[in-house]
Design a protein that fits this description.
Keywords: Isomerase, Metal-binding, Zinc. By secondary structure, this protein is mostly beta strands. 5% of the residues lie in helices and 45% in strands. The structure holds 4-deoxy-L-threo-hex-5-ulosuronic acid (D54) and zinc ion.
């Protein structure tokens, strides 16, 4: 087996408010996603979103089913999103098709497909970020080159939050997953502040392209009861539906954000005004 997996259960906001640093990290932080020659998955009980990483080396990595899915094939009742976050090009086989992914490209794979990951050059393996949620119908598998994403520039240098949001699922239809990435401009360090929540959708962040020594202080918690988790490059964090999700880095960075839940409306957010935050 080339797949490792672990389970994360859903946490009540009152329980999270009572947690110290180690408990917060154990429940919400996901480390070591990218291990050479392996697929590493975290099965969460937040909308049953699976968050993971694949790093194919000399041998192709098939996405075989895991026990928590309870199905004979991994995507039997699920959809998959793959985002290339580093290393050389990847070749991803989905059913009869093969897709070449460059860094920051996204591949959507519809329910029912068999998937195998390969690196174009085993000497420069691709690091592939994986997201999978339950699906209710098969939608076409689609490759979205990064340049084809819908771009939104927002924030300002004066508030250290100048950034570009790239939406990946505006032209690509999905059942549940809403995904994209955000790039901070040089000198800007804050994402998603003022913050928001969206009870109908969970969210996961993967911070990447962060210098080795740098850290992101990732804010979480109910707006009136915030906490933070100190995160390094290529670590992910789960945001429960009741939690804000925002971060401040010691330098600029990028992150992949992804949601699953009751709707696929990116704009459906409830603001968490700063004056109410504690
Ligand atoms: O629900 C949407 C998400 O939290 C992110 O898209 C926010 C984000 O990337 C940003 O403001 O920088
Ligand atoms: Zn959000």
């Amino acid at each position: 087996m080339t797949i490792d997996h672990e389970t994360r259960f859903a946490v009540h906001p009152d329980a999270a408010a009572a947690m110290g640093t180690e408990d917060l990290r154990r429940h919400f932080l996901i480390q070591d996603l990218f291990q050479p020659g392996r697929i590493r998955l975290t099965y969460t009980h937040y909308d049953r979103m699976i968050v993971g990483g694949a790093v194919p080396g000399a041998d192709p990595l098939p996405l075989e089913t895991i026990r928590p899915n309870g199905t004979a094939r991994f995507l039997e009742r699920r959809e998959l999103v793959v985002v290339h976050v580093g290393g050389g090009a990847a070749e991803i086989r989905a059913g009869e098709e093969s897709h070449a992914l460059q860094p920051r490209d996204m591949l959507y794979v519809g329910m029912g497909q068999e998937v195998t990951f390969r690196s174009a050059d085993a000497g420069d393996p691709a690091r592939l970020y994986l997201l999978s949620a339950p699906a209710h119908r098969t939608l076409p598998t689609r490759h979205l080159p990064h340049a084809a994403a819908k771009r939104m520039d927002l924030g300002a240098r004066a508030t250290a939050n100048e950034r570009s949001i790239f939406q990946y699922t505006t032209t690509i239809e999905t059942c549940q997953i809403v995904v994209g990435m955000t790039q901070l401009a040089e000198g800007s360090v804050w994402n998603t502040m003022p913050a928001h929540i969206h009870d109908r959708r969970m969210e996961a962040y993967l911070y990447f392209d962060l210098p080795l020594e740098a850290r992101v202080f990732h804010m979480m918690g109910a707006p009136h009861e915030t906490r933070y988790i100190v995160m390094a490059n290529e670590e992910a964090v789960v945001s429960p539906p009741w939690s804000i999700h925002s971060g401040c880095g010691t330098s600029a960075y990028a992150f992949v954000w992804a949601m699953a839940g009751d709707n696929v409306d990116y704009t459906d957010m409830d603001p968490a005004p700063l004056k109410d935050m504690r």
